[in-house]
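Input set for joint prediction.
Command: fold jointly, output tokens.
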Amino acid sequence: MTKGLRFGLATAAFAAVVGTALIAEAQSPQIAARQDGMKQQGAQMRVLTPMMRGEQPYNMAAAKQAAGVLVASAKNIPGAFGPGTEGGNALPAIWTSKADFDSKAKALEDAAMRLAAANDEAAFKAAFPAVGAACGGCHQPYRKPQS
Ligand code: HEC
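tokens >
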């Protein structure tokens, strides 16, 4: 192999590595932003779950507030997994089954809406399980299994 050819191949390989790194960097703010959104949802569940379990007294205002945050964030999920934002712990199936994925975000939105409408503890406890199920119903097929 001539020196010139070897250099050319090395340059091409280097360009490919740099190109990949640049793409990963361009995607990461969107991935970080949607992971933050998910963490926010986790924070709402830490308000709601103890009320469900009776570890905290039922507080209608706090429950409605947390459910309202879940409604708003569920609406943001489809757009947070837009074209070209593959990565993080999101499984590639999201982008090949986007309509199904989006329907799972809608299921969370609807369940959280019913939770936000609960006006007493009995209604709250009846509505809450569907919210937890909606989180798991999407994580199971579309999120990398957590260790
Ligand atoms: C429509 C699908 C969908 C629904 C509904 C959903 N999630 Fe997620 N969630 C994901 C995906 C996909 C990821 C991985 C995202 C990534 O790494 O880019 C994730 C990641 C997370 C994470 C980890 C974030 C991080 O720091 O990496 C938490 C926490 C989380 N979800 C909580 C929840 C909770 C709580 C609910 C229900 C209130 C919920 N999610 C509902 C799809 C969903």
